Amino acid sequence: MLNAAVTTDYLHTESLPDAREDDFVLVRAASQGDQKAFEQLYRKHSKRLFSVLWRLCGGQQARAEDCLQEAFVKAWQALPGFRYESAFSTWLHRLAVNIALMELRSRKGAEDLEQDDAVLAFEKTADTASHQTRLQMDLERAVTSLPARARAVLVLFDIEGWTHEAIAEHCNMAVGSSKAQLHRARALLREKLGAYRD
Amino acid sequence: MTNHLPPSFNDAELRMQLRGLPKERAFDRDLWQGIQAEIQNTPRVKNRRAWSSFAMAASLAFAFAIALPLFFSRPSVDANNLKVEVVSKEVNAMDAEYQAALKEFSSVELSPEVKKQLRVLDDSASKLRRALNQSPQSTYLIPMLRRTYLQRLQLTQRAIASNLT
């Protein structure tokens, strides 16, 4: 169901026939125990996945790396059950997002007390960046500083292109809540961007 | 992408900027060693119970859906080697999945008549596999092998269903 509900740029670019076929050969080998093939899948998909996990984890590098590692370990375990009904990238993406969301839930309440060194360093470099890069960095900074739930919905809907139905299913919330969280996230984002401009 | 957001940007403008954010992000640690260390000691999920005729058909369709386009669409110098490798891999994979599906039915007792029919199909499949091993370029054998597998599976399932009713 989710496969049909999720429509993203990610899927459009990563699920092209050639990419899918290349992945399927590697997936087939990996599911039969070929670790070299699995390493190739890791090399191919890790940066793309990391960008999502990093944003979901509020820009906290170490947490996002832990989620990424866990996602690939879980993928290895589950690979023999992969049914080739969707692109491997879609399947992996969904699995990784689930892990990050579980991680966020497990840290509920503690997250706002944390301030990752990487985020602080990231904020400092923003001062010297070019205008366009500066805008992107402002956006990244604003996104990563949103409250966890609003951030998850905004990342999945606005950046990753998921539907509210898919987000609701993954985040254990009603579709209406997903829409409300998105509204809240965008309002907060505008507020933060306005503050950065001033 | 525009270089700045207007003072009162709307949802579409905001979303456009967000969609323009980098899709990939580098990270400091090479996680592969950690992943490799974990997966070496990690049991894998086996889900053979879930096999059904539909899944089998989907799997077979998949095998040919990916094998045949590769077979016909790569006019490189190594095209022949690639064809042989791809066809061989996919036929082996299909065979393994088929055997796994059949194993699910191995404990069911079938009538002598059904067994006889299954033996005929098994012989045919075996001959087709041998022929493909000897001559992987004979791709016309692949659909025949697929049909034989499906017939074999369907006959088994029908026989089991009639035993149950």
**Which architecture of chain A per CATH?**
Orthogonal Bundle
Largest sheet of chain A: none
What coarse outline of chain B follows from CA principal-axis ratios? elongated
Count the DSSP helices of chain B: 6
How many strands appear in the DSSP assignment of chain B? 0
Structural class of chain B: mainly alpha
Order of helices and strands of chain B: HHHHHH
Terminal CA distance of chain B reads: 65 Å
The beta-strand count of chain A equals 0
Strand content of chain B: under 5%
Biggest beta sheet attributes of chain B: none
For the record, what CATH class of chain A applies? Mainly Alpha
- Count of the domains of chain A: 1
Q: What's the multimeric state?
A: heterodimer
Number of helices of chain A: 11
What percent of residues of chain A are in strands?
under 5%
Helix content of chain A: over 70%
- By CATH, the superfamily of chain A comes out as RNA polymerase sigma factor, region 2, helix turn helix motif
Could you give a short description of this structure?
Chain A has 11 helices and no strands.
Characterization of the model:
Chain A is an all-alpha fold. Chain A has one domain: RNA polymerase sigma factor, region 2, helix turn helix motif (Rna Polymerase Sigma Factor, Chain: A). Helices cover 76% and strands 0% of the residues of chain A. Chain A contains 11 helices and no strands. The relative contact order of chain A is 0.13. Chain B has 165 residues and is mostly helical. Chain B has a domain of 114 residues. In chain B, α5 runs antiparallel to α6. The longest helix of chain B is centred in the middle third of the chain and has 25 residues. The termini of chain B are far apart. The chains are: A mainly alpha (198), B mainly alpha (165). Chains A and B meet through α2, α3, α4, α5 and α8 of A and α1, α2, α3 and α4 of B.
